[in-house]
Amino acid sequence: MDRSRIEAFLDRFVDLASGATTIGLLAVADRSGLARHLSERGGGTGEEIAAGAGLEARYVTEILSGLAAAGVVEYDPESGKFELPPEHALFLADETSPYFMGGFLDMLPTILGHVDGVTEATVHGGGVPFEDFGSRIVRGIDRGNTPSQLTFLLTRWLPGVPGLVPRLETGIRVADVGCGSGTVPILMAQGYPNCEVVGYDVSAHGIAEARSRAAGIADVVFLELAVEEIPTDPPFGLITSFDVIHDLADPLAGLRRIREALADDGIFLMMEPNASSDLEANLSPYGAMLYGMSTLHCMTQSLASGGAGLGSAWGRERAEALAGEAGFTSFQPLEDISNRFSAFYLLQG
Q1: Burial class (CB in 10 A: 0-12, 13-18, 19+), 198
Q2: Distance CA 161, CA 332 (A)
Q3: Which of 25, 57, 172, 313 is deepest in the core (most CB within 10 A)?
Q4: Nearest in space to 111 (alpha carbons), one of 27, 179, 16
Q5: Closest CA to 138 of 187, 63, 203
Q6: For domain 110-348, which architecture applies?
Q7: How many CB atoms lie within 10 A of CB 253?
Q8: pLDDT tens per residue, range 97-116
Q9: Which fold has domain 3-94?
Q10: For the chain, what are the domain ranges?
Q11: Edge-to-edge strands of the sheet including 330-333?
């Protein structure tokens, strides 16, 4: 054996374990309010921060020590003080920031709690049903998606679709499939009041939250329906989905239903993880994260219901092929609004 490779992989494994435990510490900092306190009130010694945040000093000091070792917070040995840089706070404490990653601090601990279920499915088939992940995964998805939707939906994403904004301003029927807690439909109803907007989701919890958030907003409706059940008459001028299609048990049926529900000149704006269908193009830390989250959540919850189990790294090439199989005659990647994490596609039929 090559001793240097053994030592190199030992270092790599320590990096992997450190990342996992750091996510755990960040989840505690998020849920306890420690991260928010650091962002709003500044730093100090562990005892000072704990007193200000109303937390237990021993825990706070140990958490901050781990986060300092991981490079998340800064530590001054002379004063013994910890500080969260404002640039890092964008990711950990500012829920209005498009960089906010707090959703991962709900999702990652939750899916890791189902390793036994995924192991059972790996041996015997099947999967872990979506409902088994509980409300924490729903909260995580909402917290993960909402900041970028608030920042970019009306300013970049919809204006990035050629010719769409004038139609929205005039008024068309719009549907958001897999609307979750309703951020996208609410924003579209507020930004384009001449439109009739409908949000669809299979989650009763998500629909209830969306209806609560939309109280008093005209021309937005939320219905608990699967994508295969959305009505086709009257048709929609625009249908959107954001990180939804790869999770469906039957993505082909879902895409076919979306095409059938579109008006003759209607368009489907689909956002999916920015990945290739070829493994060799995904050999990166981002690709590792996608395959991991796919195995532990996206793929397994689809397979649990006898679904296709596309997984989050299904990629552009497979998405285009499936769109063609569903009857769409045009599949256009929107490179101007895509980013390192998300790819946007314009589908027409």
Answers
A1: buried
A2: 10
A3: 313
A4: 27
A5: 203
A6: 3-Layer(aba) Sandwich (3.40)
A7: 15
A8: 999 999 999 999 999 999 99
A9: Arc Repressor Mutant, subunit A (1.10.10)
A10: 3-94, 110-348
A11: 220-224, 196-201, 173-177, 236-242, 262-273, 342-348, 330-333
